Amino acid sequence: MRKTVLFIEGDGIGPEVMKVAQPVVNRAVEKAYGSERSLEWKELLAGEKAFRETGEYLPQSTLDALRGAELAIKGPLTTPVGKGFRSLNVTMRQTLDLYACIRPIRYFEGIVSPVKHPEKVDMIVFRENTEDVYAGIEYASGTPEAMRIIDFFRSELGVNVDVTAGVGLKPMTPKGSKRLVRKALEYAVAQGKSSVTLVHKGNIMKYTEGGFREWGYEVARDEFGDRTVTEKDAAPGTDRIVVKDRIADAMFQEVLIRPEQYSVIATTNLNGDYISDALAAQVGGLGLAPGVNMSDTLAFFEATHGTAPTIAGQDKANPGSLILCGAMLLDHLGWHEAAALIHNAMNRAISAKSVTVDLASQMEGARTVGCREFGDILGS
Length: 380
Ligand code: NAD
What we know:
alpha/beta, eleven-stranded mixed sheet, two-stranded antiparallel ribbon, 42% helix, binds nicotinamide-adenine-dinucleotide
């Protein structure tokens, strides 16, 4: 079986981590299945390379290819500075309707963590990716749009808004929230996870964040009723998935103090942005933080980190996040044996303390290796 993976190498450290990651993933597939299965990598242009070659940062041909694809992976992209440029990442997420951003948080023994018991951290964050304050509906203070909205609030609704305010919208729909929570529940069922926690600020924002909580419980009750139970109705030791909810600020405290009580987290766009970075920091930071953006047809893997311009081209970047994206991709295909080989290799490299500088600088007695050598170790 041969599966096609579209890839965008990305800007900054993107090309070097992509170049290291692909052979590691190929090698794992080869070791697990010999010549019976393989990946075919096909490059798409985006970012600075695309601009150099086509004059556009995000060519239409790239979007068209992604629209018809099942699997893709990308390195980080720089957002060109200056007005008139939208983030390429946000454009791709919205154009391709990549509504779920999924980030596993997994601890590798030996990583230096700011928390006392990182070995108890085993969570996965499902973040809604298209709605909320990130929908990009925002007007600067003093613009005619902002003034008209403020005027409407004052005259029609009697709500007193400061006339100098910038104004933004936080749109959240039952459809957008439910499809995200559905994905989280499907995952919990497939992986035999113990709980799904809906994280929200519904105490303050009742109709948006509170809506997310309510719609989340509805999906659990209406579509997964025989496999889930709410926290308040759960008998001790239940074999059903316990669906619970937490207020976002309390949840930040909870994941530090009682990480073992949380497994799958389903949350809104802004909460998810914060919580996934905070959780990644507990288990090794940006060098070990993979993720995927999913639509109903496309799984588009990307590392959580950016282009790290200050270390680009110096063989210092940690390719770990992109390599772990590769393992996620293999798991997504059901090629679990190959994915496990990558996780085992990562465990071995970290136990042997042969790691890139971002990790080595925190580990006593570690040997610093370059991006390429780290890839060689993981692929060997
Ligand atoms: P960044 O993630 O690039 O860097 C933050 C810090 O982490 C830096 O100190 C960097 O050196 C370090 N770092 C990041 N990845 C690393 C790795 N793999 N190995 C070792 N160290 C690593 O974030 P930033 O500086 O805020 O952003 C730089 C650029 O990246 C910006 O243009 C931003 O728009 C872009 N960005 C892109 C994406 C994406 O494409 N998904 C995500 C975030 C930022």
